[in-house]
Amino acid sequence: MVKKYLAFDFGASSGRAILGTLNSGKLEMTEIHRFLNEPVMLNGRFTWDLPRLYHEVLLALKKAAAQGGVDAIGIDTWGVDYGLIDKNGHLLGDPVNYRDARTDGMMDKAFSVVPKAEIYEKTGLAFLQFNTLYQLYSSVLEDDPLLKAADKLLFMPDLFAYLLTGVAGTEYTIASTSQMIDPNTRKWATDIIEKLGIPASILGDITEPGTVRGVLSKAVQDETGLGAVPVIAIAGHDTASAVAAVPAEGSDFAYISSGTWSLLGGESKTPVINEEAAKANFTNEGGVFDTIRVLKNIMGLWIIQECKRYWDANGEEYSFAELVKLAEKEPAFRAFFDPDDDAFLAPHQMPKRICDYIEKSGQTAPNTIGGITRVVYESLALKYRYCIECYEKFTGKKVHALHIVGGGSNNALLNKFTANALNIPVYAGPGEATAIGNLLMQAYAMGEVKDIADLRKIVADSFPIVKVEPDKDRAAWDEAYAKFTAMFELK
Questions:
Q1: pLDDT tens across 240-271, in order?
Q2: Which of 172, 199, 366, 388 is the most exposed place for a label (fewest CB within 10 A)?
Q3: From the candidates 71, 76, 100, 238, which is the catalytic residue?
Q4: Is 356 one of the annotated active-site residues of the chain?
């Protein structure tokens, strides 16, 4: 009998449930349910709409039951966010979204207690104000009663698994986004945690991806019509699932998991923690099969998504494909900006933020939708080159090809810009890498996938990969890169 796997993937604006089957070494997928994932401003906090999302999960399980059931379930979300559980097993409030303002300025406050260099040396994680460490420290400074009442902290994939099974656990890849894990030991960095007054007692034992967490509770079975289906602790961090599905051979390759964020880097058996990596703000996050993802968080397609949201709200509605066509008609290299500047972290009025930033840097801002779009894509491609050069410098590895996976791999214009900026071939696809990695790690737990090489061969055999070569005449890109790197103090 062919096994059926169900992947839940929670993205920045939507969630979906995807059914997958493995036949003769090829993965086939069908989306059976899609729903909005819209954070809610609730009593001054930007929060996950958890009751609504859990309701959508149950709806998806009912649909799966109507289609004959499934053999396993896996859940992935973005990193850093969490829920708190009290001693009676109840959720303490709605989980706060990482874009909430409570962590503004929190890193500097933490550094006054534990030096920045010590935190990086112990955790190897890049400094981002929304990391779990700073979310929790903000609760410590607020004297948050919910933190005091907490018995367990569960990261979002683990929280959904807990709601479905009643079994609490902590999966390594999602925990590794917290800036509270020692990547050398793959355990909690309790000395840093305790120095900041965070109760280490709420942090559970860590398990590796690809293990069974539990089975659906009796209540969930009765409501959905499914049986005692195992819930697998796959690579719960969506980027870890996406990188698992990079269709590369061996381990000496670079990738971008391209979506709301662009996660750019490579894979290593050991963490890379040195002064140059710290300066470049590269991170060491957990991967599947005892790997470390050495990568850089780049603001990514969030910027164009927010631009589109603004334009749509103001009656100028274009699809992403139409925005690309408008950008293609615009002059090249009109202006640049650093996508990772803090000015672009928060939502709302993104086109104005871009133009204000450009004008403050002494450039002329574009005055058309196509012009802004082109500036976004060119700036992203140039930032990718800068980050690849940083990666090559502190790892000693030379990158000869770049794999782009995730939804952004479908953007042919950005892929071409990236190949030209880096002057190396780009391999684009698959677009559904996160769901693919989720499904195949379920298959691994169920004995249908042997190892990472087997997993990636299945990906390569199952999905089309587009090779994009750089143009032979790239002088304009080199000139643009020189201006870009001279213009900003890049983060």
A1: 999 999 999 876 789 999 998 999 999 999 99
A2: 199
A3: 238
A4: no
